[in-house]
Amino acid sequence: MAEHKLNTPLTDEDIVKLKAGDVVFLSGTIYSARDAAHKKLVELLDAGKDLPFELQGASIYYVGPSPAPPGRPIGAAGPTTSYRMDTYAPRLHSLGLKATIGKGKRSDEVKEAMKEHKAVYFGATGGAGALLSNSIVASEVIAFEELGPEAVRAMKVKDFPLLVINDAFGGELYAKPALDT
Amino acid sequence: MREIPASKIVEAVAEMCVKANTVLPDDVRTKFEQAMAEEESPAAREVLRQLLENADISRDTKLPLCQDCGLAVFYVEVGEEVVVDGPGLKEAINEGVRKGYGEGYLRKSACDPLSRKNTGDGTPAVIHFDVVPGERLKIAYMAKGGGSENMSRVTMLAPAQGWEGIKKFVVQRVAEAGPNPCPPTIIGIGIGGTFDHSARIAKKALIRKLDDTHPDPEIAAMEQELEAELNKLGIGPMGLGGKTTVLGVKIAVEPCHIASLPLAVNVQCHSQRHEEVEL
Fold first, then answer.
1. pLDDT tens digit string along B110-139?
2. B residues 64-103 closer than 8 Å to A (CB)
């Protein structure tokens, strides 16, 4: 398993280097969006409008951070469970989204879309919100402020610690449960 | 009669909310350390190392352990001779949640289920009241995260399915949940009661200490058996494979209807956050 230092925006060349199980330290800008924000992003696309950020090469972090206490750019900021965004992800990948960051399993449709459009799914450690917050150096709400914790934020990250869960070749890191049946 | 000022309850609840969300309980920390010693896979060990570091950062900075500071769930034992002045006990608890979640910079995760509009202050809390004799007031708080809650299920088994059927359902549930609920998880199991009551006792079982032993030796043995079986699944910390899929199994049993065998499985993530106070 290799270790990579990558910068956003991600390119196809970055993506094809990655294999399930690789460790990635990501730097640059990533965008937070979870359930409610995804619904709104897709509504913008349906209406033929621009998204609040450039999707080509983008990385979306499935996170709803806790409020920033005084003197910090953001509160705790670990990943939320990704499958809830599965209905939206294939369309976003087809428009240039290169990576999503979350925790938990993805659907077959999302895995297919990642193969077709050269994209990856990163896992961050769930329940390590304080630790992951230390890798976020700045954060700004750029859309849907009314959604509170679910607003879209541009987050500047430095060496954000990730694992490649699904790569662009159908590889997957998650263990298959050992069931007798 | 014993009179308790609402303000005292507000303060105590607010303090519990902040403490539970920022200080990992010792029993959970000890389990992480034990798991770290047992795990051989580097990925599993790295997850556990991060979780221990996360707990240190949270304790030192007061950032929440997890951004999902949960829905606020309470178990209240209120003495028949207790009178709460001011707005009353229920409102005092909700006010404590507002204060704790507000001043502690905790995430407010309560929303309308249909419009999805956030209530903005973490309320309403889910409060279970139990009336007990005397002048006691005991309040237990749990921060219940959504990711693990989503992996929970209630089912109505046929009585003939018995313990084997119960085990099968629980193992299937944990296997299907896989990495989603932030393993290693704690599994609260409610057996018996009614459809709704099984879920209530399953969740309440989660406020037990991880290192305790059920007072009924038969149930204690069932907990151990199921824990060993679940840890054979190999899901491991964050689903990356390993020996530690669950940190514990806590079972609650109540009588049920002769026609029924209600079973509730309440999944709790590794970030088990709860506190209690007696006023």
1. 999 999 999 999 999 999 999 999 999 999
2. 64-69
Helix (H, G, I), strand (E, B) or coil at B255: strand
A127 → closest Cβ in B146, B182, B239? B182
Block residue for tokens 């709704």:
B196
pLDDT at position A54 is 97
Q: Any idea which residue has 């920022």 for tokens?
A: B22
What angle do helix axes B6-22 and B89-103 make, rounded to 10 degrees?
Answer: 40
Strand partners, A154: A31, A140
Q: What is the pLDDT of residues A119-176, one digit of tens each?
A: 999 999 999 999 999 999 999 999 999 999 999 999 999 999 999 999 999 999 998 8
Q: Are strands A136-143 and B153-157 parallel, antiparallel or unpaired?
A: unpaired
Q: Which residue of A has its CA nearest to B106?
A: A66
pLDDT digits (tens, 9 = 90+) for A82-128: 999 999 999 999 999 999 999 999 999 999 999 999 999 999 999 99
With contacts defined as CB-CB under 8 Å, which chain B residues touch A21?
43
Say whether residue A69 is in contact with chain B using an 8 A CB cutoff: yes
Instruction: Assess contact for B15 and B164: CB atoms under 8 A.
Output: no
Give me the domains of chain B, ranges plus CATH numbers. Answer: 2-20+65-144 (no CATH), 147-271 (3.30.1330)
Mutate to test the interface with B, among A66, A85, A160 (most CBs of B within 10 A): A66
ipTM comes to 0.95
Instruction: Tell me the β-bridge partners of A60.
Output: A31, A100
List domains and CATH numbers for chain A.
3-166 (3.20.130.10)
What CA–CA distance (Å, rounded) separates A89 from A94? 9
Residues 6+ apart with CB under 8 A from B192: B198, B201, B253, B254, B255, B256, B261, B262
- Note whether B67 and A79 are within 8 A (CB): no
Give residue B86's pLDDT band: very low, low, confident or very high (50, 70, 90). Answer: confident
Which of B109, B175, B271 faces A127 most closely, judged by CB atoms?
Answer: B271
Count of CA atoms in the C-beta half-sphere (13 A) of A131: 19
Distance between alpha carbon B91 and the CA centroid of its chain, in Å?
A: 22
Task: Clarify whether A117 is annotated catalytic.
Answer: no
The CA distance from A124 to B162, in Å, is 39
